[in-house]
Amino acid sequence: MSAHSLELLYLLVRKDLKVRYKSSVLGYLWALANPFAFALVYWVAFKYIMRVQMENYSLYLITGIFPWVWLSSGITQATRSYQNNASLVKKVRIPRAILPLSSVAQEMAHFLFALPVIVGFLMFAGGFELRASWLWQLPLLLAVQLAFVYPIALVFAVGNVYVHDIEHLVGLAFAMLFFLTPMVYPISMVPEGLRRWFELNPLHALMDSWRGVFLSGTLDGGKLGYAVACAALFGAVAWLCYRRFAPRIGEVL
Amino acid sequence: MIERSPWQLLEFLYLLARMELKARYKGRFLGYLGAVGLIFALAFVFWIAFKVIMGLDLPNYSVYLVAGLFPWAWMSMGVVSASRSFVANAGLIKEMGIAHAILPLSNVVQEMMHFALALPLIVAWVAIPGDYPPTWSWLWQIPLLMALQLVFVYPLALAAALANAYVRDIEYWLGIGFVLLFFATPMVYPVSMVPEGLARYFELNPFHALMECWRTVFIESRFDATHAAYAAAFAAVEGVVVWFLYRRFAPRVGEVV
Amino acid sequence: MTAALECRDLWKSYSSKRVGLKTLLLRPEVARTSRYARRWALQGVSFKVSRGQGFGVLGANGMGKTTLLSVLLGIVQPDRGSVSVQGRVASLLELGAGFHPELSGRDNVFLYGSILGMRLHEVEERYHAIVEFSELGDAVEEPLRTYSNGMVTRLGFSLIAHAPADVFLIDEVLAVGDARFQEKCRRHLQEFRKRNGTLVIVSHDMEALAEVCDEGIRLEMGEVTDAGPIGDVVRRYQRP
Hints:
The complex is a heterotrimer of chains A (about 250), B (about 260) and C (about 240).
Chain A: H1 3-22, H2 28-49, H3 57-79, H4 81-84, H5 86-91, H6 98-126, H7 134-162, H8 165-180, H9 192-200, H10 202-216, H11 221-245, H12 249-252
Helix pairs in contact in A: 1-6, 2-3, 3-6, 3-7, 3-8, 3-10, 6-7, 7-10, 7-11, 10-11
Chain B: H1 6-25, H2 29-53, H3 61-83, H4 85-88, H5 90-96, H6 102-127, H7 138-166, H8 170-184, H9 196-204, H10 206-220, H11 225-249, H12 253-256
Chain C: E1 3-15, H1 21-26, H2 28-32, E2 38-50, E3 54-58, H3 65-73, E4 80-85, E5 89-92, H4 105-115, H5 120-134, H6 149-162, E6 167-171, H7 179-194, E7 198-202, H8 206-212, E8 215-220, E9 223-229, H9 230-238
Parallel strand pairs in C: 3-7, 3-8, 5-6, 6-7
Antiparallel strand pairs in C: 1-2, 1-4, 8-9
C-alpha cells in the first residue's frame, strides 16, 4: 500500500469519525457506551435470569464483546462502503481496496479508545493487575484480528455491489454467530459432542485469545496459529475475488 | 401540496411497498423465502444456544421462539428501515411535496408483507409437532393481532423517521436499542424465569404485552385480552404523542433532509 | 378571469448553520438567536397568474427561483405571506426524484404517477401515450439505471405532460433532449395552455420561455426586480 493510499485511509477514517460524532451528544463515550450497554444487558439476562454459573462473568463478557463489536461492526459497515461512497468510486480514481479498510479501521479506532477503559474495568472491578506481557500480546492480537477481518470485509463489500442481499444477511449472520461463538457463555457449557464444531469456529479462536490475554495474560499458541492460518486463507480468497470482481464495480454501482 | 383522496393514498401506499419489495428481491421468490428462512435459522441458533447448551427448560421452546421472533422481526426491521425513510427519499420530500407520513408507513407495511408471507410457514412449524394444533380461532385472532401490531408500530416508525431526519445517529441507536430490547422483552426466555423483583418491570413493558399476545394465540389458541388491551392503550398514547411531534417537526423536514 | 395561482408578499429565509443535538441540549439560546447568518431567499414576492396563462420566472442561480417553486408547491412554508393555487398541480422539479433506479421504466411510470397523485386507472389509461411521447420504445422495460440522463428526463416530462393537472410547475427541465424533442415539449405546453391549463416555468432558456409563456418576472436576490410581458422581461434581462 503506497504512502498516498495510507494518507487517504487516514483522511477517510478521520472524516467518518468526525461526521459521526458531530451531532452526537456522547462523542467519545459513544464508542464505549454501545458495547458496555450490551454487556450490561447480557450480564443481567444471563447471570440473573438464565443463571449462568461463572466466576467473573462480567469480565468474561466485557473482554469478549469489545473485540467482537470491532469485528462485526467493521464488517457490517464495510459491506455497504462502496454503495455509501458510490460517487467517489465512480468518478475518482482511488485504490478501491481502501474503502472497506476504512470501515474496519474506524471500528478499530473505537476499540483502541476503549482499551484503557477495559483495562480499568479489569483492574477496578476485577482486582486484576496490569501485565507487562500485554505490551506485546495486545499489539500482536490487534494485527492478527486486522489481518483476519479485512479480507472478509473486502469480499463482502465487493460482493454486496453485485448481490445486494449480502447487507441484509450480514446483520443477522453476526447475531447468530454471536451465540454460536460462545460469547455469552463459556465453551465448557457446550456438550461434548457439539464442542468439536464450536472449536472449529475461527471466530472462537480469536475471541478466546483476547479473553485469555486480558484475563490471564496467556496467549494460546494453538488458537492464535489457527486464527492466523484462517486469516491467511481469507486473505488469499479475498485477493482472488478482488482481482476478478473489483474492476467492474464502477459500472455496476 | 398534492391532494390525495383516501383511495389514492391507499393505492400509493400499496405501490410504494410493492415496488420497494420488487426492487429488493427483483422478483425472485427465493429472495423472499431466504428472508423468511433466515429468521428460522436465527430461531435455530437460539434453540441451540439456550436449550441445548444452557439447558433452558421450556416445553417446545422452538415454538415459543418462532411465535415471537417473526412479529419481532416485523416490528424492529420496520422501525429501523422507517427511520431512514425521510433521509433516503429526500428528493421526494423536497421536490415533490409528498406527505411525509406515508413513507414510514410503507416500510412498516413492507415488513408486514414479509410477516404475512411467513405465516403459513409459522403455522406449519407450530402445528406439525402436534402439541399445538391450529384452531379456527386463529382465523380472526391473527388478523386482529396484525391490526393491533400495525397500530402499535406505525407511530414508532414515524417518530423514528422524524428523529433521524434531524439527528442522523438515531438510525444507529435504534438498531442497537432493539437488540437490547430483545433481551429485555423476554424473547428468548420465558418471563417466568425472571426473578421476583425484576418481573414487575418486565410486565410493564408494552412490547412484552404485544409479543405475549402472539405467543398465546399460537400456543394456547387464546386471545390474551389483558395484554392486548395494555398494548392497545400504549398504542393510543403513542399515537397522540407522535401526532403532536409530527405537527411540530414535520413541516421543516424538507429543509433538514 | 379567476387567478389560478397567486402569491401575496412572500418572504422566506434560511439559516445557514445546522444545529446539532449537543447545541440544542446544552445551549438553547444560541440556537434561537440570529447569530446564524440568515439568508433571505424570497423577499416580498407577489404575483398573480390567471387560468390559461403561461408565467415565466427568470434569474440567475441562487436568486430564489427554486425556493419560489417549493413554496408554491407547499413543500416549504413561507415566513410571511401566502400562496393560493386553484386546481390540480403537477410539477417536474428535479430530474427523476421519485424514480427508483432498480425498477423498469414501466414500474417507474406507475410509481411516479401515484406520487403525483394519480389513480392507478388514470395511469393505465395514459400509459401508451406516455411511452410514445417519451420515445423510449422497448427501453421502457429496462431498469432505470441503464438510462441516460436524457432518457430519464424524457420519461419524466412525458409523465408530467400527461398527468391530469390544471397547473404545471416546471423547473429548468426544458433543456434536455435533442432540439426536436424540445420542440415537441414546447408544442405540448402550448396546447396545454390552449386547453386553459396554467403554466409556471423557471428556466434559463429564454427562447423556450418566450415561446411558451406570455408574462413573467425576474428574481434577483429573492426580490422581484422586473415584471411584465415575457418578451420585454427577457429583452431587459439580456441587455447587460
